[in-house]
């Protein structure tokens, strides 16, 4: 490894590699069995007994986790589950950041002519990313803490909320006739409008699943605005296929940033049977939204989907939907046309000149 490569690795790892597994555990004062379980939960590859791969930062992290558990703040199971969640999400974040770095280097090939340029770029970039991540984490932490303190009597792991899915229609077919660059543009655009619409309407993105987003909202109105806003944004974007969405309302189990329960399953099933450009909602959400004048609820026949033999559903639209306004206008015009604009007269008496058909 060159000196420049070693410098980059040291910068990313927070120090040079100088401990084996046994040595870092001894330095941190943590049993090897517990340390190994933590590393596996974080998604780190298992290393040999004699491999010198650990740094002082690894020892500090082990010691901090050990202290949290033995001070009673986290029990071992919670600490392991927390590490698993952190490992999964941060692994994806790190992969994305490396892709961004690769794009920067591809767009600026002169940086690759000298390792010192790459090292200087990373030395500048990593601290900025670290500050941005810390800022975003604290803002999200504050928002979630505020909601929890606003409802101190409600168990946050099991609360009433609206769960929604929205996905791109025909995405599988699209992947077969679009090159990689075009596919990346579509996914990035979908991610961008999703982030904007969900944030503007006080929702939370649980996760992006390629061509699909799973989100939650605290109120029926916010959820309705998110779903209808997503469909409208996709319709206005010529580069995006049509979206469809499904919403369900009820008790939701929240665990380590994810959501579980029958409400999640119902929202997913509704999305799978929704037509392009349509939002389907369950009966519970329809009852909540029906008193609101800005929405139009149209109940549909129950459907049979996986896990539900007769799932009651309704279509959600805006009361100001242009297509609905045009339909009402045309119907009203037919019922109130002027005499000069009337339909052709239809005789109410039989034509006496017409000969009866012989029996």
Describe the structure.
It contains twelve helices and eight strands. The protein is globular. Helix 2 packs across helix 4 (56-70), helix 3 crosses helix 5 and helix 8 packs antiparallel against helix 9. It has 359 residues and is of the alpha+beta class. It has two domains: 3-150, no CATH class; 158-324, 2-Layer Sandwich (Alpha-Beta Plaits). Helices cover 53% and strands 18% of the residues. Strands 1, 2, 3, 4, 5, 6, 7 and 8 form an eight-stranded mixed sheet that branches. Belongs to the adenylyl cyclase class-3 family.
Give the total of beta strands: 8
**Ends distance:** 106 Å
The biggest sheet amounts to: 8 strands, mixed
Question: What structural class should be given to the helix and strand makeup?
Answer: alpha+beta
Overall 3D geometry?
A: globular
SS summary, helix count: 12
Name of the CATH architecture of the largest domain: 2-Layer Sandwich
CATH fold-level label of the largest domain? Alpha-Beta Plaits
What is the average per-residue confidence, as pLDDT, rounded to a whole number?
81
What number of domains?
Answer: 2
Helix content bin: 40-55%
CATH level-four homologous superfamily name of the largest domain: Nucleotide cyclase, GGDEF domain
- Topology as H/E string? HHHHHHEHHEEHEEHEHEEH
Features:
359 residues, alpha+beta, Alpha-Beta Plaits, eight-stranded mixed sheet, 12 helices, 8 strands, 53% helix, globular, disordered C terminus
Write the layout of secondary structure elements.
Layout: H1 3-13, H2 21-28, H3 32-42, H4 56-70, H5 76-107, H6 115-150, E1 158-168, H7 171-177, H8 180-200, E2 204-208, E3 212-217, H9 220-236, E4 243-255, E5 258-260, H10 262-273, E6 279-282, H11 283-289, E7 295-305, E8 308-318, H12 322-335
Parallel strand pairs: 4-6
Antiparallel strand pairs: 1-3, 1-4, 2-3, 4-5, 6-8, 7-8
Helix pairs in contact: 1-6, 2-4, 3-5, 8-9
Domain Guanylate cyclase: 162-271
GO molecular function, one term: adenylate cyclase activity
Protein name: Adenylate/guanylate cyclase domain-containing protein
